[in-house]
Design goal:
Blueprint (H helix, E strand, L loop, with lengths): L1 H19 L14 H21 L8 E8 L6 E2 L1 H10 L9 E11 L5 E11 L5 E14 L2 E11 L5
Parallel strand pairs: 1-6
Antiparallel strand pairs: 1-2, 3-4, 4-5, 5-6
Length: 163
């Protein structure tokens, strides 16, 4: 009888240890991420950026962070929102005013906490006759600051052959 009680206590102790040492998480610390909603939010930012650029009027749209860096082709990186905006709008003139840019978000890669998003997309610039004059691909790193995504790093490459 003592042996049965002793064996029962050992089995009960082992079961208690197994349950206590279970490595499965019963509560998750991960934030629920809606990747499609984030992709839509990023595409909306790209549409707003294109609309502002196409208007030819540099206004703040909250796209770039103050410490953003833009890696563009055939030049040193542009550092800071002011330098990027000056570069983007500095080249606009009467000839280029009729050109229109558009962006398409192809993929987004969202961090587990939802605070960073890498966007891979496609851009197109058309002239007044809707003929492509430049197309290419880009990558943007967005970071959530004050509840909104802002661009902190970007780079692009043209599909057009060098002339």
């Amino acid at each position: 009888m003592k042996t049965n009680i002793f064996n029962s206590l050992i089995i009960l102790s082992l079961l208690s240890l197994l349950i206590a040492c279970d490595t499965k998480k019963t509560e998750s610390n991960e934030v629920a991420i809606d990747k499609e909603q984030i992709k839509k939010e990023i595409q909306d930012k790209e549409n707003e950026f294109a609309e502002t650029y196409n208007s030819g009027i540099p206004k703040s749209i909250g796209y770039y962070s103050d410490d953003a860096v833009s890696f563009t082709q055939n030049r040193a990186p542009l550092v800071g929102k002011d330098a990027i905006v000056e570069y983007l709008f500095g080249g606009l003139n009467q000839t280029t005013q009729s050109n229109k840019i558009s962006f398409t978000t192809n993929e987004v890669f969202v961090s587990n906490d939802g605070n960073q998003v890498v966007e891979i997309g496609y851009y197109s610039v058309v002239d007044s006759t809707n003929t492509n004059i430049n197309t290419g691909n880009y990558m943007v790193l967005f970071e959530k600051r004050n509840g909104k995504y802002v661009c902190v790093r970007e780079m692009s490459t043209s599909d057009m052959p060098l002339e």
